[in-house]
Design brief:
It comes from Microbacterium esteraromaticum. This is SseB protein N-terminal domain-containing protein. InterPro entries: SseB_N. It is a single chain. The chain is of the alpha+beta class. The protein has two domains: 229 residues, no CATH class; 116 residues, Trna Endonuclease, Chain: A, domain 1. Helix content is 24%, strand content 21%. It contains twelve helices and 17 strands. The strands form two sheets. Strands 1, 2, 3, 4, 5, 6, 7, 8, 9 and 10 form a ten-stranded mixed sheet that branches. Strands 11, 12, 13, 14, 15, 16 and 17 form a seven-stranded mixed sheet that branches. It is elongated. The relative contact order is 0.17.
Length: 407
């Protein structure tokens, strides 16, 4: 495990949120024993290090005392598709005066007419896409603290949140969180706890009888959470794949997860029920989403096609109620090529704001559609961004599934 320490020369007192304050501690236990839900033993941690691009780290900061710092928890929460956005963590009655902004309908994404398969992106993405959408090409892999790789897609999505974030914006944050890694704060030495088979004492916020796991998208968000904390010197951190973190929230009795709690207003709460549904609807490793978010080369289309051949994907179905033709959504290019719209997760369909219905497609079904309709030039994956158009010449791993050896 890649571990490093860094000691601060001075510590600034953290500001306490004006809306409310709650006790933050690092006594929540996450099992370090092997489990089907989210193994957290040393072997799994090593695998998590690879998935997180060797970002697993421990950071030490200022001297510790016994006191527990108070932090604000007036955060935006996404409760699921169709629900209002608002504070998930209850505020004291005399301070809960601000209400969340009602959700706004997301702007429909018109069918694009790009000049080539590689440019098969919606018009909005060729300008400045905003949440819940994102740019077609993934952002450059950067870090905000030396030695700690950020989850850049998630970091940038959170940066777009403001006070009174809409449900559509929170959908954008949620879908961008389904790849790469998150950092967890740990009370004590995370490496030693894993080595000794102990439960990880992860950072939590308690709201009455409910507890929320704390997770961080970037080195800066993690650093901000420990600056001024009286127990900072005994705090370390560990990077884990997002799916492992969400599984721990679901199986560990938590009410949800708070991402980047100390970075108001660029933070969000996702309740356990939503995380469980998101995990059920995606593949175990979020392979397609992860490939789309990673740096690209000439082999990327083939790798995405290979992932599509191994896991369920989704298509967007229009039922005709909006006056448009019934069928599966496509993209048409300027040279009259047709590309089937394919999605890694139903949230990707919802984010487009077109009222299409996400429908699951097994690899064999997707292969059959492409095989039966030779006029379709390929697929475009996750139109809301990051997205990728893949021509038939790169879809061999998928198309072979439609071949019947008995014929």
């Amino acid at each position: 495990m890649a571990l490093f320490s860094r000691r601060k020369k001075s510590v600034d007192q953290p500001a306490v949120g004006e809306d409310a304050a709650a006790a933050e501690d690092t006594t929540g236990e996450v099992s370090a024993q092997p489990s089907a839900a989210a193994p957290m033993d040393a072997e799994t941690a090593a695998a998590g290090e690879q998935d997180a691009k060797n970002a697993e780290s421990a950071v030490d900061d200022a001297p510790a005392t016994e006191a527990v710092p108070a932090v604000g928890i007036s955060v935006q929460a996404f409760r699921g598709v169709g629900a209002d956005a608002g504070p998930e963590v209850a505020l004291p009655a005399d301070e809960a005066t601000a209400s969340a902004t009602p959700p706004r309908p997301a702007a429909p994404v018109a069918a694009a007419r790009p000049t080539s398969p590689g440019d098969a992106m919606p018009t909005e993405q060729q300008t400045v896409p905003r949440l819940p959408l994102a740019a077609a090409v993934p952002p450059e892999q950067t870090h905000t603290v030396d030695g700690l790789n950020d989850n850049v897609l998630l970091r940038e999505a959170l940066a777009e949140l403001g006070e009174g974030a809409t449900n559509e914006q929170l959908i954008g944050v949620m879908r961008q969180s389904l790849q790469s890694h998150l950092y967890l704060r740990v009370n004590g030495d995370a490496r030693e706890q894993l080595k000794n088979g102990q439960p990880l004492a992860v950072g939590v916020i308690r709201d009455g009888e409910r507890s929320f796991m704390l997770a961080y998208s970037s080195g800066k968000a993690l650093r901000d959470s420990v600056e001024g904390a009286e127990d900072a010197a005994s705090t370390s951190a560990i990077a884990q794949p997002v799916t492992a973190v969400y599984q721990q929230v679901v199986s560990g009795g938590f009410a949800g997860v708070i991402i980047d709690n100390s970075s108001a207003p660029h933070r969000a709460v996702f309740p356990t029920e939503l995380l469980q549904k998101a995990l059920e609807q995606g593949d175990e490793n979020m392979a397609v989403k992860s490939l789309l978010a990673a740096p690209r080369d000439e082999g990327t289309p083939v790798r995405v096609a290979e992932a599509l051949a191994k896991t369920r994907s989704w298509v967007a179905v229009n039922d005709g109620s909006n006056g448009k033709p019934v069928g599966i959504a496509e993209v048409h290019t300027t040279d009259d090529n047709r590309y089937l719209q394919v999605f890694s997760h139903p949230l990707e369909v919802v984010a487009l704001g077109r009222n299409d219905r996400p429908m699951p497609f097994q690899p064999e079904q997707l292969a059959k559609v492409l095989s039966d309709h030779s006029e379709i030039a390929g697929v475009i994956v996750d139109l809301g961004g990051p997205s990728l158009a893949i021509g038939r010449d790169a879809l061999s791993a998928l198309l072979v599934l439609a071949i019947n050896v008995d014929d």
